Amino acid sequence: MFEETGIKEKVIEEIRELAIVYGIDKVVLFGSRARGDFRERSDIDLAVWGGDFNRFWLDVDEKTSTLLQFDFVNMNGTVQKELSEVITVEGKIIYEKVYELL
């Protein structure tokens, strides 16, 4: 599913695992990698909702098996309307927490 982003599946899985560890609600890939017009060294843009954002981004940046740079947007804070719209339109969901109904 993420082959067209140029990001190895192992890196996607590592991001998902860290999202679970830090109680993240949702992670969305956006930017050139989501659109498919990235270059070899393009960064990985991630929008993140919920959980422990600071520890999540630190571990993603340090522990994933890629040398690519990450750019994070904390969607729990103030986000420019234009950026939020871009994320909604072009974003690809990497992880979304599943809630069970009781």
Q: What is the gist of this entry?
A:
Helices cover 37% and strands 21% of the residues.
Can you describe this structure?
This protein has helices spanning 9-21, 32-35, 53-63, 81-90, and strands at residues 26-30, 44-49, 70-74, 92-96. The protein has a single domain, classed as Beta Polymerase, domain 2 (2-Layer Sandwich), CATH 3.30.460. Helices cover 37% and strands 21% of the residues. Strands 3-2-1-4 form a four-stranded mixed β-sheet, with helices on both faces. It starts with 8 loop residues before the first helix and ends in a 6-residue tail after the last strand. It has four helices and four strands, in the order H-E-H-E-H-E-H-E. It has 102 residues and is an alpha+beta fold. The longest helix is centred in the first third of the chain and has 13 residues, at 9-21.
**What CATH first level would be assigned?**
Alpha Beta
CATH fold description:
Beta Polymerase, domain 2
What's the number of domains? 1
Flag low-confidence runs: none
Helix content: 25-40%
**Sheet/helix structural class:** alpha+beta
Instruction: Please identify, by name, the CATH architecture.
Output: 2-Layer Sandwich
Count the helices. How many? 4
Instruction: Describe the main β-sheet briefly.
Output: 4 strands, mixed
Query: What is the helix/strand order?
Result: HEHEHEHE
CATH superfamily heading: Beta Polymerase, domain 2
How would you describe the shape?
Answer: globular
The end-to-end span amounts to 31 Å
Average the pLDDT over all residues and give the rounded result. 94
